[in-house]
Inverse folding.
């Protein structure tokens, strides 16, 4: 665990020092301005990037734009947000094909599976195959079959994952308080979430804890039912779990407010591996990589492709290597579960003056 509160990622210093072109930092949208026709003809075309978001803009996109701006790399951005509606993806694919951008930025697993497909199930009729792709904010790109391994994607794709290794998260929980029973609420219709449960079952053997995993109730259209989440929290409390864990699950992440509020009510701490849950809900503790830094790293890979002309297949996808232990003191006070002194040496404490 990184003792610094600010996550820092080494992104190859010699590459990050080089400055080219100019970028207006605000929205990241740039228009070429050459007063003379001859100069305009000599000016390289501005790279065009097509961004597809899953649930609106996050700090990852801010980090992405800021990194490009800091390196004076100007781009034109087209942004689309599917707002969790995967039925929009085929239309987005058609729009990308018509626009023919220089690069596609994809946020999250659902967008990747819909737009570029799993590496062993690519269908050129449905998926983008001929445009460089940088993915961002994928919890488990290997488990989702976006990439076969961390060495190379084997195709026109690279990117960054924000996820902290699961065994490190378990160790983070244990450092705060013992784990004999671990509770998880998961969405059975989300591949990431199902894969996470499978991994937790293996770690339960290694760390000798009992895993109690409860699926969210689905409606007739296989959509998760929000009202079922607080009921499942209560069931886990009745099972006397030591922690409730929020894993890589978009629906559960969206329900972080009701979930953690109910957990406080029934006296169960929540641990998360994602920054959003610890900073914007009543989760007690999290071992996380910053969204902002993950976006910066995706921008670094974008510049390798568009500026340095390196093929995506030759740029290894990477998981963030630095992370922070964040403790929500508001939740600690409410639960009367104050952190051990040893953790205070390196943890980031938030909500210190809130009760």
């Amino acid at each position: 665990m990184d003792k610094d509160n600010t996550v820092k990622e080494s992104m190859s210093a010699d590459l990050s020092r080089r400055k080219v072109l100019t970028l207006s930092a605000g929205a990241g949208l740039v228009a070429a301005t050459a007063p003379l026709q001859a100069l305009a003809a000599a000016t390289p075309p501005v790279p065009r990037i097509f961004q597809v978001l899953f649930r609106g803009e996050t700090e990852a996109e801010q980090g992405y734009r800021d990194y490009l701006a800091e390196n004076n790399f100007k781009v034109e951005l087209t942004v689309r947000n599917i707002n969790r509606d995967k039925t929009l993806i085929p239309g987005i694919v058609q729009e990308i094909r018509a626009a023919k951008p220089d690069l596609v930025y994809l946020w999250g697993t659902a967008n990747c599976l819909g737009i570029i497909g799993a590496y062993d199930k690519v269908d050129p009729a449905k998926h983008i195959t001929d445009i460089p792709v940088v993915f961002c904010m994928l919890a488990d790109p290997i488990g989702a079959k976006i990439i076969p391994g961390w060495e190379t994607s084997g195709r026109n794709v690279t990117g960054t994952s924000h996820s902290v290794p699961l065994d490190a998260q378990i160790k983070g929980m244990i450092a705060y308080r013992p784990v004999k029973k671990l509770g998880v609420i998961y969405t059975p219709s989300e591949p990431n979430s199902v894969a996470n449960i499978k991994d937790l079952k293996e770690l339960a053997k290694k760390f000798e804890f009992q895993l109690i995993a409860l699926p969210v109730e689905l409606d007739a259209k296989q959509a998760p039912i929000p009202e079922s989440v607080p009921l499942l929290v209560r069931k886990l409390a009745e099972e006397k779990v030591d922690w409730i864990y929020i894993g890589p699950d978009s629906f559960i992440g969206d329900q972080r407010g009701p979930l953690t509020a109910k957990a406080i009510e029934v006296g169960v701490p929540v641990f998360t591996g994602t920054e959003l849950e610890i900073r914007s809900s009543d989760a007690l503790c999290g071992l996380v990589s910053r969204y902002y830094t993950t976006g910066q790293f995706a921008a670094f890979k974008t510049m390798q492709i568009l500026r340095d002309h390196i093929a995506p297949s030759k740029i290894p996808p990477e998981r963030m290597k630095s992370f922070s232990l964040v403790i929500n003191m508001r939740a600690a006070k409410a639960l009367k579960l104050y952190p051990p002194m040893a953790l205070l040496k390196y943890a980031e404490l938030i909500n210190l003056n809130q009760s």
